Amino acid sequence: MTAWLDWFLGCLLRAVQGADVLLLGVLDKARFWQCWAGTPMNARQTLVLNHVLDGMEGKLTNARWAAVGKCSPDTALRDINDLLALGVLRKLEGGGASTGYTVCMK
User: Fold this and answer.
1) Around Cβ 10, how many Cβ atoms within 10 Å?
2) What angle do CA 61, 69, 31 make, to 5 degrees?
3) The CATH number of the domain where 83 resides is what?
4) What is the mean pLDDT of each run of 10 residues along the chain (106 residues)?
5) What secondary structure does DSSP assign to the chain, as a single string?
Protein backbone atom coordinates (compact mmCIF):
# COMPACT_ATOMS: atom_id res chain seq x y z
CA MET A 1 0.00 0.00 0.00
CA THR A 2 2.96 2.37 0.57
CA ALA A 3 3.98 2.38 -3.12
CA TRP A 4 0.41 3.16 -4.18
CA LEU A 5 0.11 5.93 -1.58
CA ASP A 6 3.43 7.39 -2.77
CA TRP A 7 2.17 7.36 -6.38
CA PHE A 8 -1.19 8.88 -5.43
CA LEU A 9 0.36 11.68 -3.38
CA GLY A 10 2.77 12.43 -6.23
CA CYS A 11 -0.18 12.72 -8.64
CA LEU A 12 -2.04 14.94 -6.19
CA LEU A 13 0.99 17.20 -5.74
CA ARG A 14 1.43 17.60 -9.53
CA ALA A 15 -2.28 18.39 -9.92
CA VAL A 16 -2.14 21.06 -7.20
CA GLN A 17 1.01 22.59 -8.67
CA GLY A 18 -0.58 22.68 -12.15
CA ALA A 19 -3.70 24.33 -10.76
CA ASP A 20 -1.53 26.89 -8.97
CA VAL A 21 0.23 27.85 -12.21
CA LEU A 22 -3.09 28.10 -14.05
CA LEU A 23 -4.65 30.20 -11.30
CA LEU A 24 -1.68 32.60 -11.26
CA GLY A 25 -2.16 33.18 -15.00
CA VAL A 26 -5.87 33.86 -14.56
CA LEU A 27 -5.21 36.26 -11.68
CA ASP A 28 -2.52 38.12 -13.64
CA LYS A 29 -4.90 38.52 -16.59
CA ALA A 30 -7.68 39.78 -14.29
CA ARG A 31 -5.28 42.21 -12.62
CA PHE A 32 -4.18 43.55 -16.01
CA TRP A 33 -7.75 44.19 -17.16
CA GLN A 34 -8.63 45.71 -13.82
CA CYS A 35 -5.72 48.15 -14.17
CA TRP A 36 -6.72 49.17 -17.70
CA ALA A 37 -10.53 49.00 -17.30
CA GLY A 38 -11.08 52.68 -18.07
CA THR A 39 -8.76 52.76 -21.07
CA PRO A 40 -10.50 52.92 -24.46
CA MET A 41 -9.41 50.04 -26.71
CA ASN A 42 -10.84 48.71 -29.92
CA ALA A 43 -11.96 45.09 -30.30
CA ARG A 44 -8.78 44.11 -32.16
CA GLN A 45 -6.54 45.51 -29.42
CA THR A 46 -8.54 43.60 -26.80
CA LEU A 47 -8.33 40.41 -28.87
CA VAL A 48 -4.56 40.58 -29.31
CA LEU A 49 -3.91 41.57 -25.69
CA ASN A 50 -6.01 38.63 -24.49
CA HIS A 51 -3.98 36.36 -26.78
CA VAL A 52 -0.77 37.68 -25.23
CA LEU A 53 -2.11 37.38 -21.68
CA ASP A 54 -3.21 33.79 -22.35
CA GLY A 55 0.45 32.85 -22.78
CA MET A 56 1.39 33.54 -26.38
CA GLU A 57 4.68 31.87 -27.28
CA GLY A 58 7.49 34.20 -28.30
CA LYS A 59 7.53 37.96 -28.32
CA LEU A 60 4.82 40.27 -29.54
CA THR A 61 5.89 42.00 -32.77
CA ASN A 62 4.10 44.08 -35.38
CA ALA A 63 3.87 41.07 -37.72
CA ARG A 64 2.46 38.91 -34.95
CA TRP A 65 -0.07 41.57 -34.04
CA ALA A 66 -1.19 41.71 -37.69
CA ALA A 67 -1.52 37.91 -37.83
CA VAL A 68 -3.46 37.54 -34.58
CA GLY A 69 -5.60 40.63 -35.18
CA LYS A 70 -6.19 39.70 -38.84
CA CYS A 71 -5.26 43.16 -40.05
CA SER A 72 -2.64 44.87 -42.17
CA PRO A 73 0.81 45.65 -40.74
CA ASP A 74 -0.03 49.37 -40.94
CA THR A 75 -3.18 48.89 -38.86
CA ALA A 76 -1.24 46.73 -36.41
CA LEU A 77 1.35 49.48 -36.02
CA ARG A 78 -1.37 52.08 -35.37
CA ASP A 79 -2.88 49.82 -32.70
CA ILE A 80 0.51 49.30 -31.10
CA ASN A 81 1.40 53.00 -31.18
CA ASP A 82 -1.94 53.87 -29.53
CA LEU A 83 -1.24 51.41 -26.72
CA LEU A 84 2.36 52.62 -26.36
CA ALA A 85 1.08 56.20 -25.93
CA LEU A 86 -1.40 55.03 -23.29
CA GLY A 87 1.28 53.05 -21.44
CA VAL A 88 -0.45 49.69 -21.98
CA LEU A 89 2.51 48.40 -24.00
CA ARG A 90 6.24 48.95 -23.60
CA LYS A 91 8.96 48.44 -26.23
CA LEU A 92 11.53 45.75 -25.55
CA GLU A 93 15.22 46.28 -26.19
CA GLY A 94 16.22 46.04 -29.82
CA GLY A 95 14.64 47.59 -32.82
CA GLY A 96 13.90 47.39 -36.48
CA ALA A 97 11.45 44.92 -37.94
CA SER A 98 11.87 42.61 -34.96
CA THR A 99 10.92 45.19 -32.32
CA GLY A 100 9.10 43.43 -29.51
CA TYR A 101 6.52 44.71 -27.05
CA THR A 102 5.33 43.66 -23.61
CA VAL A 103 2.20 44.47 -21.65
CA CYS A 104 2.48 46.78 -18.62
CA MET A 105 0.64 47.12 -15.37
CA LYS A 106 -0.11 50.63 -14.07
Assistant:
1) 10
2) 75
3) 1.10.10.10
4) 93 96 94 96 98 93 96 97 97 84 90
5) -HHHHHHHHHHHHHHHHHHHHHHHHHHHHHHHHHHTTTS---HHHHHHHHHHHTT-SS-B-HHHHHHHHTS-HHHHHHHHHHHHHHTSEEEPS--GGG--EEE---
- pTM for this model (two decimals): 0.82
* Contact yes or no for 68/89 (Cβ under 8 A): no
Q: What is the span of the domain harbouring residue 77?
A: 2-103
The pLDDT of residue 63 is: 95
The answer to whether 53 and 28 have CB atoms below 8 angstroms apart is yes
Looking at the structure of the chain, the number of domains it has is 1
56, amino acid identity: M
What is the pLDDT at residue 94?
80
